[in-house]
Amino acid sequence: MSTIALFGAGGKMGQRLSQNLAKSSYKVRHVEVSEAGKARLKERFGVDCWTPDEAIKGADIVVLAVPDTVIGKVARGIVDRLGPGTLVVILDAAAPFAGHLPERSDISYFVTHPCHPPIFNDETEPAAKRDFFGGIAAKQHIVSALMQGPESDYARGEAVAKTIWAPVMRSHRVTVEQMAILEPGLSETLCASLLDVMREALDEVARRGVPREAARDFLLGHMNVLGAVIFEETQGVFSDACNKAIEFGKPVLMRDDWKRIFEMDEIAASIERIT
Q1: What's residue 275's pLDDT?
Q2: Going by fewer Cβ within 10 Å, which terminus of the chain is more open, N or C?
């Protein structure tokens, strides 16, 4: 039975992880600095928190469920007291990519992040259909990277990842750099920005007199069918009218050099702003 020291256990992400770890065979030591977080853990899970020094003593795995902006500070505060071979798990690529993890050659760094439940899915249970984030009832895919450490530690880290993000379908192995391209590059800089523009477009259509509920239903329904064709969830082709609208719309909406957001200097700049 492996022992996990879970830092940030009383936060939003920490509670998600605590819930899934409670169902596992891992022995968990919860670490939380805020009194409100400690109270939430006691109320929800009936657990008392450990001090950082107590939690890491003899722990096989340390999970840092803390904000990107403090991961470096937390890691530097404990790294000298970790036992050789400790696996440190980070839940986002930003801080590792930015070089915020302290150097220590005899421990392993493992980075993992959820893909979140896909838009096209086979969920039928109400709880799963409403689990948009994942890690509660809806199945999701995950990505993981072994940043440093022996190859055998990838399997050890993946086992933790599959537990905290459960239920998991596909588990993808990537590099830290590739994970940084996925987030913030693909998921936030691109996808979140375009979705935010679509929400602004909905507001504009409603401002121009279209009933808001009708416009929302129309947009979300078309996102479903158009997305299914574009991402090859179903066989189909667009009408000539739709293709002409795309041909006109893309240069109006997108800069010619928009793909530069995936250049590593742009990714690094984005991560610097985040961290």
Answers
A1: 87
A2: N
